[in-house]
Write a structure and sequence with these properties.
Blueprint lengths: L1 E8 L3 H18 L2 E7 L2 E8 L4 H28 L7 H13 L2 H11 L5 E3 H8 L1 H16 L7 H13 L5 E9 L2 E5 L17 H11 L1 E9 L7 H5 L4 E6 L1 H9 L1
Parallel strand pairs: 1-4, 5-7, 7-8
Antiparallel strand pairs: 1-3, 2-3, 5-6
Helix pairs in contact: 1-2, 2-3, 2-4, 3-7, 3-8
Length: 259
């Protein structure tokens, strides 16, 4: 029997719950016992599995812990340290998302190199004391952006840097279709694409669309929009070489949605 405890400070309840639900779902698929309780200011997620499942659990835990640090903790780090000039809300969101995903593979490597899953892990302590090299890397990235704050006040300069960041993101997906609807956008992938279920029946507003496409960083983007929408979107400006835009009538869009 392999036993492991993942511990988070009680004030990070929502994050702890999210991790608990992911681990619980994984255990329902392959077996094992997962429980949680609060003790001395910590939420403890307890795992007990047969020894032959230990490696599967370690691989899964390594993945979700790495993703958590590269999303939740890095997002918090950027919010606390990044100082940007005033721009439109969508542009700022895109810039923050681009920084969040910039050089993601190296972030993953640094975390997993320092991660040891023996009997327990205190997540905040691991982040605070074992990942100083990672935070130094993030500090350098934020510092470059902050030092060029005056330069970024220009809309053209801001867009140029944003496009540079987007161009240098790791390609994570193959091809995605974006279909404009009356109340937002829907994303469609190939039937065997790992993201298909995540976006099934999900309607995205403009902010959600920008955020999702930058996270996905696909090789090819096909945007289908209404004939009465002639506005050049931010996606067209920052994914210049990877996006194809088709303007079609409402009836054609409805037919596409049925597929």
């Amino acid at each position: 029997m392999w036993e492991f405890s993942l511990n988070l400070r009680a004030e990070n309840f929502n994050l702890a719950r999210s991790l608990y639900l992911k681990i619980k779902e994984f255990s329902a698929e392959i077996g094992g016992v997962v429980t949680s309780h609060e003790e001395r200011g910590f939420i403890c997620i307890l795992i007990g599995v047969k020894n032959d499942l230990k490696d599967d659990y370690k691989a899964f835990l390594s993945k979700i812990i790495t993703q958590t640090i590269c999303s939740y903790y890095k997002s918090e780090f950027l919010a606390q340290n990044l100082i940007l000039p005033r721009h439109d809300k969508i542009g700022i969101l895109a810039f923050q998302k681009a920084l969040l995903n910039f050089d993601r593979e190296t972030d993953y490597y640094i975390i997993q190199k320092n991660l040891s899953l023996n009997n327990n892990l205190y997540l905040e302590s691991f982040y605070d004391f074992k990942l100083s090299g990672l935070k130094s890397k993030w500090t350098e990235l934020v510092g470059l952006a902050n030092e060029n704050r005056d330069y970024l006040m220009s809309n053209d300069s801001f867009l140029d840097l944003l496009k540079f960041l987007i161009d240098n993101l790791d390609i994570c997906g193959g091809e995605v279709d974006i279909i404009e609807e009356q109340d937002g956008y829907k994303l469609y992938f190939g039937n065997d694409d790992v993201y298909s279920e995540d976006y099934k029946n999900k309607i995205l507003n403009e902010e959600g669309l920008i955020s999702s496409i930058i996270d996905l960083s696909p090789q090819k983007i096909n945007l289908y929009r209404h004939t009465d929408n002639n506005a050049t979107t931010l996606l067209e400006k920052i994914f210049v070489e990877r996006i194809n835009v088709t303007t079609i009538g409402n009836s054609a869009l409805q037919r596409l949605n049925k597929h």
